[in-house]
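From the methods appendix. Each design record in this collection lists the tokenized structure first, followed by the designed amino acid sequence. Records were kept in a plain field format so they could be parsed without special tools. The example shown here is representative of the layout used throughout.

RECORD:
FOLD TOKENS (204 positions):
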């Protein structure tokens, strides 16, 4: 199982997460308590292994600004967490992760043709579009609707529930931010435990 640790804000946390086995790191450029500047993200990313996926998280940002930030930071993927259209997604120069707050299977089905490399299933919207640490009912998801997409599961995951979530959804990757924090700060013990639990699951 692949793991993405989102909301990275310093190089030490990034390196620790990778040492523990993280496959992808997320950098938030939208309004969030974890928002980072493109320049700071670039300093961190410049010190990371090439094979690690570096994701920039955006909410209803302009195409020009996304491309500008991606170039400064050295991103490999763009995560769209707002109301971005299919045409908008298609115009971007990097692979796209489209985040969707799961509400119903009917709504989910509408993303079948959305142009993206990955579809990220997230919990309900809160103060921010993502990173609210709220789970949804995984058993409600009709996974047959998603067979042609690489699914990233997010929203309220932590070391205690990630195994169950993986078994129900069988995602391509799991994504965590607040679930590996203590008092709003990334907790290395929680990161290690989460990655170990996620990668310990063998899907039939």
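DESIGN:
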């Amino acid at each position: 199982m692949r793991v993405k640790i989102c909301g990275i804000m310093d190089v030490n946390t990034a390196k620790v997460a990778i040492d523990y086995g993280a496959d992808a790191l997320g950098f938030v450029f939208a309004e969030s308590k974890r928002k980072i500047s493109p320049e700071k993200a670039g300093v961190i990313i410049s010190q990371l292994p090439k094979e690690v996926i570096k994701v920039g998280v955006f909410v209803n940002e302009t195409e020009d600004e996304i491309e500008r930030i991606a170039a400064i930071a050295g991103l490999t993927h763009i995560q769209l967490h707002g109301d971005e259209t299919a045409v908008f997604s298609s115009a971007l120069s990097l692979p796209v992760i489209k985040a969707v707050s799961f509400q119903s299977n009917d709504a989910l089905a509408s993303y079948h043709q959305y142009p993206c490399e990955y579809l990220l299933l997230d919990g309900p919207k809160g103060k921010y579009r993502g990173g609210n640490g709220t789970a949804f009912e995984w058993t409600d998801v009709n996974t047959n609707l998603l067979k042609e997409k690489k699914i990233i599961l997010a929203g309220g995951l932590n070391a205690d529930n990630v195994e169950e979530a993986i078994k129900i959804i069988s995602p391509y990757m799991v994504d965590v931010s607040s679930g590996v924090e203590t008092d709003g700060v990334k907790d290395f013990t929680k990161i290690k435990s989460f990655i170990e639990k996620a990668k310990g699951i063998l899907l039939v």
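APPENDIX NOTE: The CA atoms of residues 60 and 83 lie 6 Å apart.
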